[in-house]
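A common beginner's mistake is to predict each chain separately and then try to dock the pieces by hand. The better habit, illustrated here, is to supply every component at once so that their relative placement is modeled jointly.
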Amino acid sequence: KTYRIATIPGDGIGKEVVPEAMRVLDALAQLDGGFQFEWDILPWGCDYYLEHGEMMPEDGLEILKKYDQIFLGAVGLPELVPDHISLWGLLIKIRRGLKQQINVRPAKLLQGLESPLKNPGNFDIVVVRENSEGEYSDSGGRMHSGSDEIAIQNAVFTRKGTERAIAYACELASKRSKKITSVTKSNGLSHSMPFWDDVFHDVVSKYDELQQSSAHIDAMAAYMIMKPAEYDVVVASNLFGDILTDIGGAIMGSIGIAPAANLNVEREYPSMFEPVHGSAPDIAGLGVANPLGQIWTGKLMLDFLGHEQLGEKLLSAIEYTLKSNIKTKDLKGSATTTEVTDALIAYLKQS
Amino acid sequence: KTYRIATIPGDGIGKEVVPEAMRVLDALAQLDGGFQFEWDILPWGCDYYLEHGEMMPEDGLEILKKYDQIFLGAVGLPELVPDHISLWGLLIKIRRGLKQQINVRPAKLLQGLESPLKNPGNFDIVVVRENSEGEYSDSGGRMHSGSDEIAIQNAVFTRKGTERAIAYACELASKRSKKITSVTKSNGLSHSMPFWDDVFHDVVSKYDELQQSSAHIDAMAAYMIMKPAEYDVVVASNLFGDILTDIGGAIMGSIGIAPAANLNVEREYPSMFEPVHGSAPDIAGLGVANPLGQIWTGKLMLDFLGHEQLGEKLLSAIEYTLKSNIKTKDLKGSATTTEVTDALIAYLKQS
Ligand SMILES: CC(C)[C@H](C(=O)O)[C@@H](O)C(=O)O
Ligand SMILES: CC(C)[C@H](C(=O)O)[C@@H](O)C(=O)O
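With all components supplied together, the output reads:
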């Protein structure tokens, strides 16, 4: 079996970490023997924009639809291309165009990784983020000028979208420790968030076995610092999920390591796997970027392709490099990007 | 000189900590000898709502306008009154009705308080939050029903409001360490946040001496955990300021201790001083609530009234109780609410 993967290294360190993760996934496929990857490199992103005036070709989404999955590095070169162009022209366009409506991001205490928290506990959280609507909306605009100028940003929540995210989170919670927390801000945002609360109530009430709770985003941000081990599955809107997953990266010990999956749960179109970190242009090209976020992202792709055992193996290999202190600079190590990957692959082959 | 203070203990532990802070402020006034407080207790809040169907009297805002300042405990009893009623009927109504357009919240590593961070550094941040508009808007609504239902929440940013908050933050930064960070999410929210960035650019360019930076809310939430000591003045929208200040409370070691000021900078109407923490109905009435958030809030009121030296004195007294381990349960101590206050007042009198 061959998985055809649309591979978008993107910008900055994306170009360095994607090839590393490809090497790892190829090694795993070889070990397994039952499948292989075919990586088609699509050179889309800010360089492409600077040349063509768009982040990807006109028919980019059609091209992507022909693949099994999408493996993306990072997008953005804010010095040259304004963020809202680079992201809405690629990342967010793909998320929406291919109906990748669910974003799944684990935040888990890894052995060998130093959390900035004194007592992190053995936390193991999965944040399920609504990925297609909500606060990330291009509805709105600006009017008047000078001191009268105003800007309006409209957040749009549909019952279908909200229900889908919450139902996915409930299913996931049923398979894990049966705890689910919904995050809103219904005391401040008086339309969207009470609506989310209502939908959460409706959906979760069908899952008798789940222990459910709700928290406001401000409190939840604090709880992720004070008592992360008390949470399991956390479900939140597009914006709140975004914020909570960066906090998740921070308490793990590095945003450079956090993985993400943009899922088309119905498998009508390919899903997209991308790490939480950005393109980090400041360290690009130096060979010091941490490849573990991209590699862990590869685990999420393996899981989604049904190779969960290989995925587990990959996660232990990640932990092995950390415990062996084969770490990049961001984790206070001195290994290069390639050295980390080499050690990881060697471990996989020998174990 | 007599300061007439509209005193709203509110709900839950608000009723316990407000009288404690009043005792402290009275003691300071007596030490100073130059002024006194007159505390008028206004029994508004959820109990009032359950009796009268509204959180405060019809002419509540008019009543408040006659006072010098407002000292508030906490509002909310979510079991009995939905949050969006209790808050929009009192807290948010006062913030807006009395044009308290700037919310100021320090987050500072206090001696004697254990931060959950391994290496917090000696952080000393002030978050300036736009307090009157933005994401907290009652514009929006719901339409259709069943699976077609949608909810819309409109965030509204005006140049005046945005400018006012940023200008206040710039002034503050000029008086402190001359560093200012603006927090947005212009890569995801494509109207409001690029607008905020533009206004920030316009205002900050008038302050040559300031070292300025911008961060996205997701990254900033992570930075507050990873390197809080690198920040000084942080300016953000209503929602983002809300989130960052709870994170500020968490990294200090307790949200129970964080203070806040809702300022009417032009002093046209009274300002309102309220701690960040909520009404904590679960521990209300037990005499174990931490009074330090309310007391530190009293310091912000003293500062605003021009008694900055007394304010400094009060902050050292707070640190004294912490260093002496006279702490309430939330800080792993065994002192009661009253014992903490007694010790603090004794220290003030003797020093
Ligand atoms: C209670 C709530 C509406 C309020 C807010 O979000 O402003 C609170 O969280 C705060 O920070 O004062
Ligand atoms: C780059 C940005 C638009 C994106 C987001 O907010 O979704 C990023 O922060 C993420 O979390 O993937």
